[in-house]
Specification:
The complex is a heterodimer. Chain A is of the alpha/beta class. Chain A has nine helices and seven strands. The chains are: A alpha/beta, B alpha/beta.
Chain lengths: 282, 287
């Protein structure tokens, strides 16, 4: 039986919390040791800070948020956010693969590269490379790692998450995949608590929402004075609406949902029919 | 540094302008009526041509094709009432070779320069469109819309007055071939919603603009003729593909598209979009 280790891959410091934070907190409560690989350095997402200050502020926020969620370690690959398309997909995949072999997770959470209408394309570039680790974790990839004693590692379960939206009806669960809702009602406050620590990013989001509402002639009274409390209130409302919208689909108060590939602990792994047929012939 | 610290205060207000980002000249088949309608209502519209349309002709060299299609696109834009056309000149059918950030940043500059109230972009999430230029251009355009709001993208441009800007309304356009194009996917907070726009009042102008794309229209007519011939069929109107025949096929195409998009609506002629407005990305209780 694999050790109870989970690894979440995320484009920015908050994306995995928004898409899968409740589920990760739930598994941590069940005894899983959680790790996070962050692909981008979050140098763009701020108001009034230059790239270096933005990066420092967001990374400090992300470390705190991960700790609150119960994550043992957040490893930042520090690639340039907003420019992940410039990075070779092979290179990003190799970075992730190396760390998967290091952490040896039983469960892997990755951004779903197939979802629609995610205007921040770093989600796509991260998800695409992360999905390919499914086969690059095998020993014949990166032989130099095997030579250095870092053997290949097969991940038993992969959870694809959509960072900022519910899945569309009928999406996911094709072939050997299962579409999996998770009741995160009990872990929801921990998810919110962790997310609210992302003060730099949340203030940027709140500023943009305020600007959009004012430009549309519909200012919100709750954003008139843009302080930490106002940004917190908006961030909470965003998480609540997402969790409730997903929950409503599955008869839950607060939900998260995943396209799930794999075999849960204790479950018998299904084999392709041609493998079983060969075994019978022997 | 001091200037950048206060950059958020310099958030630009939207104009009444419309900005169309287009992979190719055929954008007007899918969004030309809606754009013409907005222009009739007083909007000022601008067009950015990303690809150079150097492939879409019959029996012409790429250089001549690009030149003709550029002139005809500009003529079509004038008919629609579009005020300016910028041609970025990337090679059509090879947009996948253009770095995503290169294309995105060029588009971001124009978004900040023009500060449109409405943005039209190719839908990179539409399925079954075989023209992949629209996917790559749409991906860059959608990302440009998102990134233009952050001062840490193109900081040098910010220093020259091209300050961060959020386009309030975005229309994603695509050929109406995706069978799931009218499914909402989720609520307006999380996903741009399907929208059919009545183009009855602007249809004549759209048709006139489409007919101005003479090189593309002749190419389409020849392709139809060749496809029919490959399966032993013929259309009498295409026995001799002259200007009149090409226009007739083009007109049928424009009318047919408008009919398909109007199905299930009270309109007789329509265009279909995914629409992201004030609802998108803002929690319901704050709107």
């Amino acid at each position: 039986m694999a050790e109870k280790i989970l690894l979440a891959i995320t484009a920015g410091g908050g994306d995995y919390i928004m898409g899968a934070g409740g589920t990760i907190a739930k598994f941590v409560a069940e005894g899983y040791r959680a790790y996070v690989i962050q692909a981008g350095n979050d140098e763009k997402n701020s108001i009034g800070l230059g790239p270096a200050e933005t990066r420092l502020a967001n990374n400090a926020d992300a470390e705190k948020a991960a700790r609150l969620l119960g994550v043992a370690e957040l490893f930042n690959l520090n690639n340039k956010s907003g420019e992940l398309s410039q990075l070779s997909s092979n290179e990003l995949r190799a970075q992730m693969t190396t760390l998967i072999r290091h952490y040896k997770p039983a469960k892997l959470f990755i951004p779903d590269p197939f979802i629609h209408y995610e205007p921040e394309w770093d989600q796509f570039w991260t998800g695409r490379a992360a999905e390919e680790t499914n086969y690059s974790n095998a020993g014949y990839f990166l032989p130099e790692l095997a030579k250095a004693g870092v053997a290949g590692h097969s991940v038993a379960e992969t959870y694809y998450y959509a960072a900022r939206r519910p899945y569309r009806p009928g999406e996911g669960g094709h072939g050997s995949a299962k579409f999996m809702p998770v009741d995160v009602s009990a872990a929801f406050e921990r998810k919110v608590e962790a997310f609210l620590v992302l003060r730099t990013a949340n203030l940027a989001y709140a500023t943009h929402v305020k600007q959009r509402l004012e430009a549309a002639g519909r200012p919100s009274r709750r954003l008139l004075h843009l302080d930490a409390a106002a940004a917190d209130g908006l961030a909470r409302a965003r998480l609540v609406e997402l969790a409730e919208t997903i929950g409503r689909k599955h008869g839950l108060r607060f939900g998260e949902e995943f396209n799930y590939h794999g075999t849960a602990p204790g479950e018998k792994q299904s084999r392709p029919p041609w493998i079983s047929e060969r075994e019978r012939r022997r | 540094m001091k200037r950048r610290q206060f950059m958020h205060l310099a958030f630009a207000q939207p104009s009444r302008g419309v900005l169309v980002l287009a992979a190719d000249a055929e954008w007007l088949l899918y969004a030309g009526g809606a754009v013409a309608g907005m222009i009739s209502s007083g909007a000022e519209a601008h067009l950015i041509r990303i690809g150079n349309d150097e492939r879409q002709s019959w029996d012409l060299q790429p250089e001549e094709t690009a030149l003709r299609n550029r002139r005809e696109s500009e003529a079509a834009a004038r008919i629609l009432g579009i005020q300016s056309v910028v041609s970025l000149g990337f090679r059509s059918s090879e947009l996948r070779e253009v770095p995503h950030t290169t294309m995105r940043d060029r588009l971001m500059m124009h978004i900040r320069r023009l500060r449109p109230g409405v943005l039209f972009i190719p839908n990179p999430h539409a399925e079954h469109d075989r023209n992949l230029d629209r996917y790559y251009a749409g991906a860059a355009a959608e990302d440009a819309w998102h990134c233009a709001r952050f001062a840490n993208f193109l900081p040098a441009a910010s220093d020259h007055g091209l300050v961060p800007y959020i386009v309030p309304e975005v229309y994603y356009y695509a050929p109406p071939v995706d069978p799931r194009r009218r499914e909402p996917e989720s609520t307006a907070t999380f996903v741009p919603q399907p929208l059919q726009v009545d183009i009855g009042g602007a249809f004549a102008r759209k048709l006139e603009a489409a007919l101005a794309l003479e090189t593309i229209n002749r190419d389409r007519a020849m392709r139809v003729k060749q496809t029919l011939a490959a399966s032993g069929q013929r259309l009498r109107v295409l026995d001799s593909v002259d200007g009149a025949a090409a226009r007739r096929i083009a007109e049928e195409n424009v009318r047919g598209l408008a009919r398909i998009c109007a199905e299930g609506t009270p309109f007789s002629q329509a265009e279909e979009f995914r629409y992201a407005g004030i609802d998108f990305g803002i929690p319901r209780e704050y709107r």
